[in-house]
Amino acid sequence: MSSGTYNPTHVQAVEYGPGSISKLSGLVKQVYATVYPGSSDSPKVLVLTGNSLKTKTPVIGKIEEQLKQEGLYGATFSSIGQHAPIAGIREAVKLVKDQKINVIVGVGGGSPIDAGKAIAHFSAEELGGPVMPQVAVPTTLSAAECTQNAGFSSEKGDKTGVAGPLLVPRALIYDAELTKYTPERLWLSTGIRALDHAVECQYRPQAQVPVKQIALFAINTLFTQLLASKADPDNLEARTALQIAAFQSLWPNALRTPLGPSHGLGHKLGATYSIPHGICSCLTLAACVRVLAHTLQPADKACLANIVQFLPAEFQPTQSASFYSPLSGRTSSEELTTKATQVADAIDSLLAKLGLTVRLSGFKVPEQDRAKMAEAVGTAVKDFEGMPTSDQFTRMLDTIA
């Protein structure tokens, strides 16, 4: 095994389990004291969310009530749309200035949590001073709370963003009770997004061995517990296990390299055609794995192939090695390709069982756009070893048309 270095992010605390939202006020005070040591002011929170959570569930009202009881509440902004359009972010930055907000509580999926990072970034640019901290309360499995990247949509609808080590949320709350209000298709598809993180971690440039190994256990949990959650949506143990697996899938990591082509294609599809993050992964992950099984360099292909041994029994190919048995360094390239292809087959099978098999045609992606999209993704991953060519990406997109 080669040597390496793992550097964590600025995450200070992770609370998990039903009822853990009760820890919110304490976490707000904790992250505030870290970023503003010795300040004579008090935390003043902006609750950042989407319209559905605000108007159709009791989640935001309960959070506001808790913060008000502790004298921490400042304002709520609920106009963060899918893929976090820049217009909403600018509006929220103005609110931060007007209300003298100094802590963000992002509640919901990837869009409000990423928007929180962007708002913190732009507020610091305009106002000076430190980057305000965020406490993230995810209600999906997209794992945006784990990264220092803030993705949002430009005025033209293109995916863009900002990044920096101080943008990562300082504290996370995984309360399964709050996820019961998340629509089933959104909940399950963002679980596939988490699976996308964990799989692409296996061939991510410079990904550290400990992080890759944590992601393998996330893959096993996601396969088993997504099915359990679909079978019984009230199963809070399954929901909590999925939240922890989402955290493991994108383990807090200061590494700045891109994840891989499935993510690159998802960013283009999502921003251009308004396809939700999780559904993008349902479209691209298995197809990308199937192509990468043939093109990756041997070391990366071995990491991808090793996923087979972490699949639950019902997804195991007949001739698979025993669970957790490491692949031999003498495994042939042909055998690695076979095993990596079996990973793609397992992902397709999981999608079918979850009712998440989707095609590009269902989102009116024009045939003439595929080559342009493939070229853009090919450029984005050009520094990766063993990536498909633009032509191969185009043919891959044809298979999911």
TrEMBL record:
This is Uncharacterized protein. Pfam families: ADH_Fe_C, Fe-ADH. The gene is Mo00745. Keywords: Oxidoreductase. The lineage of its organism: Eukaryota, Fungi, Dikarya, Basidiomycota, Pucciniomycotina. It comes from Mixia osmundae (strain CBS 9802 / IAM 14324 / JCM 22182 / KY 12970). Residues 189-377 form the Fe-containing alcohol dehydrogenase-like C-terminal domain. Gene3D superfamilies: 3.40.50.1970, Dehydroquinate synthase-like - alpha domain (1.20.1090.10). Residues 16-175 form the Alcohol dehydrogenase iron-type/glycerol dehydrogenase GldA domain. GO terms for molecular function: alcohol dehydrogenase (NAD+) activity; metal ion binding. One of its GO terms (cellular component) is mitochondrion.
